[in-house]
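This part of the workshop introduces the protein records we will be handling. The question running through the whole workshop is how a given chain folds. To make this concrete, we reproduce a full record directly below:
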Amino acid sequence: MNKAITDGLALMPPPFTDGLDVWSREDGTPGSTTYEGAADAAIVTADQDFGGCIEIAKTETTQRLRYMGQTPILPGCYLRVRARIKAMSGDLPGVRVAAWAGAAGEEHLAGVPETGAETPLTTYGDVVEVAAIVGTGARGGVDMAWGREAIYGHFGLDLIGATGGVVRIDDIVIEDITSVFLRDLLDWVDVRDYGALGDGTTDDHAAFAAADAAAVASGRGLLVSKGMHYIGDTLTLDARVRFEGTVTMADAHRLQLTSDYDFPTYAAAFGDEELALRKALQALFHFTDHVTLDLKGRRVDLSAPLEVAALVPGIDAFAQRRGVANGQIGADPDGDWASVSLSRQATYDPSTAARQLSGISGAGDIPVGALVLGSGVGREVYVTSVNAAAGTVTLSQPLFDAEGTQNYTFTRFRYLFDFSGFGALDKFEMLGIEFLCRGEASCIMLAPEGLTFRISDCVINKPKDRGITSIGRGCQGMFVEQCQFLSNEMPLRAQDRSSIVLNVNANDTKIRNNRVVLFAHFAVMNGSGHMFIGNHFFHGDSEPNGVRQAGLVFTKTNVKSTVTGNYIDNSSIEWTNEHSAEPAFDNQFSFGGLTLTGNIFTVNGVASWFRWLIVKPYGPGHFIHGLNVSGNVFRTINGGIARVDGVDTTHAGLDYGRMRNIVVEGNAFNGIDQTIANPVTLRHDQNSTATTWTIDSAGFLPFEGRARNVDAFVLEGPAVNDGGATVNAMPYVSTEAGANGDKVQLHWPEAVKGRAHVTLRVDNPV
């Protein structure tokens, strides 16, 4: 690049032979004294070395020679000022290139270097060349770096030292040498060319902004040269950018890269990967024209939880789609990952506030997101918010049997990504990330409120306590898809594990095609409208006659959810109402709306009392009014079990007299003593004549329930009396016969015998 050629800029001063009225003996500014007619200066027209030149008799200690024309200084341009000089007689002076820096309004730009290096003249008649480079940027080799405020200069020479000597000076040459400093075939604009110093203290914000504007206007990239560049405010760079140096800025200030928004660029910008991730996320929430932070396959180890809301103060709710993708996020083993646990006395009054604990001294010490433990507290209850002044905390779920005052334990796990500082967060995505929790940290804590959080194609490796934690309703409509969850508790027996993959407090989640290995639970689910499809979750161990925990725990009665096409391996499905402040039935919906279809259930080496489907009411009066168990395969290996279903009566049993709308059909049973179906068709052989035939459901009905209805009755062959005569009369039916109500009776008008097929139901179908 040569601005004298491309833009027609006039850089060269006129030759001395054109006259000395434009050559100042002061600073070159208008009105300064010139050498025209001076006794100590003359034009020489035919010097043997120079041709035309000026001869000066040195009469001042520092004798100045300045061209009075304004030589332009442009950002990104570098000028070399050079002159040839020789001593003729008298004392030998030193010589240097010198200038006067001009700013807007023809003001002097103070505080910048205005002289080059001094060269002594040592021999009469020897031609010596002096030169200096001037420009806006503080590049290596630049003698006079004037910054972006300089717009012109008056250039010339200084003669230094004793007076009395005589010198001759050839015409001064000013030339554009910007090409010496250009990078990569003119593709880059260097921030130094616009005044950036990179000394770590001078604010280079204005220089970066000006260089970026020039790069965008010219279609070039922006080069951040070596050095530590302090940026004193939020900075947006629209050009593509390459960092050879780094930047430093206050936590509250943002670096927003609109063309090169990816993690490697931020890592190069800040020189610290953890800081770079925080600054890149900070920019992500402030509209950088990108919706996803691409890690580009890089790994970042965190020394402490990444509390995302703290990066963007002032943003309480965020509803635009944003995400992080394609890399690894790890927990530094030497980082700050220790859980915090404290105990406080609190009062629970479900009649006034079913999701609140009150009367807490020092409530402000309880962290938002803490797990709550205490008598009458269900699984996965968390602190959603804290009101220190009122001495209260808000809970993610009601408590089933905690009315009154007691001591509670509040434990706050530490998460790689912690979104709990937001009030609400919608549409955030984690895509293609391996989370290396290393048994040090949990993985993700959601915001208290929010819609459609999505985690897809990720690996959550060895979370210490939890995989994904919802402390409120930030899980509404959440997607968890095609992920692997690998436990940190694999060597432990199933009953000794405590880590949980995820919990849900809201509705409509889609949990699909995940692989889960050796946790205490896969999911603890409140809310309804959930879809579990295509997952494989395995929670076994090698202990003979081992204990198995629930893979899925539903904690709402009317769950309205489907579990389809899963491989449910050495774990069960538990259906409770432990998150109800009034767990006894009282005209609300009871257990219903659950569909289990097309699943593979398997178990290996367990005790015979193991069950795959367990209903556990936490209060009396409940029943099932909507359950479909169809097309599943149940198989045991290395030992059998009694049956696949059961009721845990620790707190209460079921009201079998109110069961409704239960379908159990088309299932395959291998290694199970008692199969189940509803409706179930049983063959009854009445070998002696009787007026009452009693048909025992014999455990075939789900949950060993009552025989409440008869759908069909068919005789196989005739019913005959004692004389062998066929009796064509029809019997009538009595249901719920016997001490347990699990039998039906056929009543005939006379004593008969024969074979019948009777279809029984445990429920009323509608």
The first strand starts at residue 23 and ends at 24.
